[in-house]
């Protein structure tokens, strides 16, 4: 049986090493790298999006009174200098709005204009992937004022309209397309977080019920070892493909969303489900692997099917889910650990647990 720390100590075990692991991922440009692969001497690539997520985590830690090893102003300046890059999406600008709620630079109006312009040029809200739409709701809700009200209303109408399936889960896109009904865990959990934040501020009466309905379905589908499966059929409310099971879902994204929802709703089941996912990191998983070796400067990204079986299982499960409504289970065979780490994973870890690490609660 795998050994893991009591849940009350997870923040202490995880947060400080995660903060220290971020420093080697900073590039000369001031931005964060795209990926660190175990055994490589240097990190790979560069990412504006991941830099934004790390910045959010660092600002959360600073608010909680936790010392951080990176200069947040330098990172924010590097992000702002890169916002005109072609890879920057409306969702990324929304993340920058969220940053603005924690580090007011007087940029809200300019960011809103940038967000509107990008949406117009890229198909509008229906064309946004589910995680981006959730970030747009989150970013607008984080800086509520007269200027954001109309855009937030439109984004919520999209999320709670065409994007919401009868199962309670959220579709991958509002617009039509083959992938529309098959969202990943990110679409679901970011939507739950966004709606919980909207509900906390009383910005839309529909938000809390929709957040709870989606979370209830996710709890029903949580794996027996506490893992969060990857791909869903939103129309049927079922799991299509469990792999990859990602570490960031266990230590970061599920805890930050479900703990937020627990507080807003008063229902401890949600925080409990997030806690049930933590032992997975410490070896209570199908490979009995420690997935958070932060002493090595990283968390391992995921447990996945080996190639090319990964694509074959994905295609087969998606096809059978679309036709007969169920997928093949396929567990425990031809699996491996993805021994890489992306900086945003550590950013969300810090976002989720910084306040607990500080010994207080600042949400």
Question: Which descriptors apply to this entry?
Answer:
363 residues; mainly alpha; three-stranded antiparallel sheet; two-stranded antiparallel ribbon; 13 helices; 6% strand
Strand order of the largest sheet: 4-5-6
Helix content: 40-55%
Which structural class best describes the helix and strand composition?
A: mainly alpha
Biggest sheet: strands, sense, closure? 3 strands, antiparallel
Beta-strand percentage range: 5-15%
- Number of H- or I-type helical stretches: 13
Radius of gyration: 19 Å
What overall geometry do the principal axes of the alpha carbons give?
Answer: globular
Uncertain stretches: none
Mean pLDDT: 91
Q: Count the strands? A: 7
Q: Give the N-to-C terminal Cα separation.
A: 35 Å
Order of helices and strands: HEHHHHHHHHEEEHHEHEEH
Task: Give an account of the 3D structure.
- With 363 residues, the chain is mainly alpha-helical.
- Helix content is 50%, strand content 6%.
- It contains 13 helices and seven strands.
- It has helices at residues 10-22, 48-63, 72-81, 90-100, 108-121, 130-142, 146-159, 185-200, 207-221, 247-265, 268-276, 309-324, 343-357, and strands at 36-37, 231-233, 238-241, 245-246, 302-305, 335-338, 340-341.
- It has a three-stranded antiparallel β-sheet.
- The longest helix is centred in the C-terminal third of the chain and has 19 residues, at 247-265.
- The two termini are 35 Å apart.
- The model has no long low-confidence stretch (mean pLDDT 91).
């Amino acid at each position: 049986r795998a050994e893991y720390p009591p849940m009350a100590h997870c923040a202490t075990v995880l947060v400080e090493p995660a903060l220290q692991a971020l420093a080697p991922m900073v590039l000369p440009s001031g931005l964060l790298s795209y990926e660190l692969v175990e055994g490589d001497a240097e990190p790979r690539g560069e990412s504006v999006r991941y830099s934004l997520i790390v910045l959010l985590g660092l600002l959360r830690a600073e608010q909680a009174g936790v010392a951080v090893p990176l200069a947040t102003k330098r990172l924010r300046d590097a992000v702002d200098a890169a916002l005109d890059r072609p890879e920057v999406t409306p969702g990324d600008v929304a993340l920058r709005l969220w940053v603005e709620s924690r580090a007011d630079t007087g940029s809200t109006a300019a960011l809103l204009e940038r967000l509107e312009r990008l949406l117009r040029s890229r198909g509008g809200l229906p064309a946004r992937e589910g995680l981006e739409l959730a970030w747009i709701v989150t970013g607008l809700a984080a800086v509520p004022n007269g200027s954001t009200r109309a855009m937030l209303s439109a984004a919520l109408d999209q999320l709670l309209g065409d994007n919401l399936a009868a199962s309670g889960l959220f579709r991958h896109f509002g617009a039509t397309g083959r992938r529309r009904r098959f969202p990943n865990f990110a679409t679901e959990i970011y939507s739950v977080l966004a709606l919980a934040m909207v509900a906390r501020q009383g910005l839309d009466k529909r938000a809390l019920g929709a957040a709870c309905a989606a979370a209830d379905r996710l709890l029903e589908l949580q794996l027996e070892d506490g893992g969060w499966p990857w791909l869903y059929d939103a129309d049927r409310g079922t799991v299509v493909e469990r792999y990859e099971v990602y570490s960031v879902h266990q230590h970061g994204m599920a805890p930050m969303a479900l703990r937020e929802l627990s507080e807003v709703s008063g229902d401890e089941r949600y925080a409990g489900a997030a806690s049930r996912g933590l032992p997975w990191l410490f070896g209570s998983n199908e490979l009995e692997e420690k997935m958070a070796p932060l002493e090595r400067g990283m968390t391992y990204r995921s447990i996945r099917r080996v190639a090319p079986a990964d694509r074959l299982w994905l295609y087969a499960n998606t096809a059978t889910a679309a036709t007969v409504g169920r997928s093949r289970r396929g567990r425990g065979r031809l699996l491996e650990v993805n021994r890489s780490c992306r900086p945003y994973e550590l950013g969300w870890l810090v976002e989720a647990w910084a306040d607990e690490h500080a010994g207080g609660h600042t949400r």
